[in-house]
Amino acid sequence: MANQQISLPAKLINGGFAGIVGVTCVFPIDLAKTRLQNQRAGQQLYKSMMDCLVKTVRSDGYFGMYRGAAVNLTLVTPEKAIKLAANDFFRFHLSKDGKGLNVFKEMLAGCGAGTCQVIITTPMEMLKIQLQDAGRLAAQQRVKATMIPCTKLAAATAVHCRSYNVSPVTITRKLSATEIAQELLRTQGVRGLYKGLGATLLRDVPFSVVYFPLFAHINRLGQPSPEENAPFYHSFLAGCIAGSTAAVAVNPCDVIKTRLQSLQKGANEETYNGIIDCVRKIWHKEGPSAFLKGASCRALVIAPLFGIAQVVYFVGVGEFVLGYTPFNLYSS
Fold first, then answer.
1. Separation CA 298–CA 131 (nearest Å)
2. What mean pLDDT comes out for the span 47-63?
3. Is 152's pLDDT higher than 50?
4. Which end of the chain is more exposed for a tag (fewer CB within 10 A), N or C?
5. What is the 3-state secondary structure of the chain?
6. Max CA-CA distance within the chain?
């Protein structure tokens, strides 16, 4: 137990550093995922992930792909630190006399970790989604602003309709995460930042239940002996496989969470009164396939994100920074 307490600060450093590196690498794909998930039938601006990224660069420049990254980079450190450290904490207390955990206890530890992380995840996702989806709504307005509907003339008169460029009536100023947070706190209090908490729990708890046991078992296959950790490349591969599997498994919950946390809606877009109402409206108006929107993007985000996170975590960057152990890339 003493070793566990000593290593806790190192585990927090590992989780935070891993989160920053991972988010920086995969954030553009996460932005595409959010925009694809928020698209409604008949109002599709983006055909695929690559189409979304290309159009984003054309309209907002390279850094447009990182819109909302600041809030994510700020909060991902405590979020990843809590997630990874909490899983270790629960695994430690669920083990008896240092013996390995069975699958049920591994899933229970993951459940505890997923429950703890929503304290940070919910407001982080809430603010990130507003900023990420702002570009989709702006693009939707630009498309409408460049089209003037043609009026129907008499049936006997044949005319050719043309599109004219029209300047938007209003130009909305880009809001920052701080301004959005202040407005939510002013109008709705702390509850405003935790909109979609139930949906976040519905996504993050099953994700952790699937991810952590799967990662532990795959990573164990690369260990030279029970006393040694797996090489960094095996931990990376295990994190990628477990992360992408868990991400696709809970993607329907992620779609629901994204829809509920999107405060600004485009023209004719549905509003939802909770999880059940959201599920019912998506199912009836967009079909079952809508729950898989952005699944490939989410897998591409989560796979390297957790691969990087587990490498950083297991090679012991935090332990090295604090002087507990020497840095060893191959096996720590």
1. 18
2. 89
3. no
4. N
5. CHHHHHHHHHHHHHHHHHHHHHHHHHHHHHHHHHHHHHCCCCCCCCCCHHHHHHHHHHHHCHHHHHCCHHHHHHHHHHHHHHHHHHHHHHHHHHCCCCCCCCHHHHHHHHHHHHHHHHHHHHHHHHHHHHHHHHHHHHHHHHHHHCCCCCCCCCCCCCCCCCCCCCCCCCCCCCCCHHHHHHHHHHHHCHHHHCCCHHHHHHHHHHHHHHHHHHHHHHHHCCCCCCCCCCCHHHHHHHHHHHHHHHHHHCHHHHHHHHHHHCCCCCCCCCCCCCHHHHHHHHHHHHCHHHHHCCHHHHHHHHHHHHHHHHHHHHHCHHHHHCCCCCCCCCCC
6. 90
pLDDT tens-digit readout, 110-137: 999 999 989 988 998 888 888 888 777 7
CA-CA distance, 121 to 117, in Å (whole number)? 6
User: What is the average pLDDT across 306-312?
Assistant: 80
CA gap 136, 138 in Å, rounded: 5
Which band of pLDDT confidence, cut at 50, 70 and 90, is reported for residue 301? Answer: confident
Cα–Cα distance for residue pair 197/117, rounded to 1 Å: 11
Whether the CB-CB separation of 27 and 69 falls below 8 Å is answered with: yes
